Amino acid sequence: MKIEIRLFATLAAYAGHGDLDAGGCLSFDGPATIRDAVRRLGVPEQEIKLVFLNGVGAALDSPLKDKDRVGIFPPIGGG
């Protein structure tokens, strides 16, 4: 199974960690959740505010399937 992961804002620094390929994808041999992907990339869960799975809000325990797209955002402030 291959999923596309995008890390935004301050989390983009973790894109160079783990097993992301040049296209921003992670591969899993068996069942996996978004939390499994986050752990493989070394992203601290406390730094995550929003998670999207195929454009829809999701939880870290959401199961993944082949060709899913995951977006992960930190808390973002602004005025």
Protein described:
Helices cover 10% and strands 25% of the residues. The protein has 79 residues and is an alpha+beta fold. It has one domain: Beta-grasp domain (Ubiquitin-like (UB roll), Roll). The longest helix has 8 residues, at 34-41. The radius of gyration is 12 Å and the shape is globular. The protein starts with a strand and ends in a 6-residue tail after the last strand.
Tell me the CATH superfamily.
Beta-grasp domain
Total number of strands = 5
Number of helices: 1
The level of helicity is 10-25%
> Major β-sheet, in short?
5 strands, mixed
Main sheet: which strands, in order across?
2-1-5-3-4
The SSE string, one letter per element, is EEHEEE
Structural class: alpha+beta
**Terminal residue distance:** 40 Å
- Hey, roughly how much beta strand do the residues contain? 25-35%
- Overall tally of structural domains: 1
The CATH level-2 architecture is identified as: Roll
Mean pLDDT: 93
pLDDT < 50 stretches: none
Ordered list of secondary-structure elements with their pairings:
Blueprint: E1 2-7, E2 25-27, H1 34-41, E3 50-53, E4 56-57, E5 69-73
Parallel strand pairs: 1-5
Antiparallel strand pairs: 1-2, 3-4, 3-5
